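User: For my dataset I need records formatted as: sequence, then structure tokens, nothing else. Please produce one.
Assistant:
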Amino acid sequence: MAPIQAVLFDADGVVVHPNRFAEYLAHEHGLTHEHTRDFFQGVFLECLVGRADLKTAIAPFLARWGWTDTVDAFLERWFSEEDAPDERMLAVIAGLRRRGIPCYLATNQERYRLAYMREQMGFGQIFDSIFASAEIGAMKHDRAFYAAATAALSLPADVIMFWDDSASNVDAARAYGWRAEHYSDFATFQAVVQRSIEMI
């Protein structure tokens, strides 16, 4: 088997602890998944592939949800609540890069949070680059995402390792030829990486 030449990581659920904002909305504003589902399962999906602007798309929903501050204030709260990287993962990523193995973020992300991740969370420096659905125009269940990322990496698919907590994304990556792994917990991840890349 060819050696791994690049490692790609999902953001929420792998590098970032997810759902803190959902907990904030429920606790502070009484907004549950049932209240926000129409947005997140509707026009937000268009934002994720760059076909809609989040600030424009979310404004009418904020009025419906009873949010009395600005759209920018809502997004700032959202992004800051989700600014929760797993420091253990960041240490592994730094170790891989020191060994000469480039690391990339592969994420379904609209452009405003993507900018926050790059600049405020430092992911523009922590990773060699970021592959995001809003810039590619396809999400990670779509073959087009992997085609675009593989072309940008200029690597054979079978030397690309990918970690995601979504089984469907892992299946899609494997179908394209990537060495995709399902992320369940840090200990399992660390053991597989050590075996695959001989990293201590």
